[in-house]
Model the fold of this input.
Amino acid sequence: LPESLVEAGKGAEVFLDAFGDRLERCSFRRSPLHRCAQTWGVYETAFAGRGLEVPQIAVDDALVEIDHASWHGKTVEDLEGADRAAAAAHRAGDVSQSLPTESRAQLDVLERAAAWVEGLDEPGRVVVAFGHGTMQNAI
Done:
């Protein structure tokens, strides 16, 4: 949403206030999904606006959001039957509740996030990850 990009711009400014003098110590990664590319674009604009060199960013498949599949864009009330019950359990925090159509449970995302963090091998670096809420909360 346009409002989200405005918020991302504010976040970029806060980030640059805190880390702008040590960007060479940062390693940037983002999810391959479109929203993260858009957020990174806002950060690129902020870097350029301050006359800073825009750093490279790695696209990291491990940062992909949980896939809500056929539930995407729907409320619990929009669903019926088993999907409604499963969505209600998921939204209530049941981390073992699988989502539809080859989607995965929050527990799977937690395990994937733990493996991602454990696999980081960037001593002395600040890893800046652009992901989605489910993955960020898991990390």
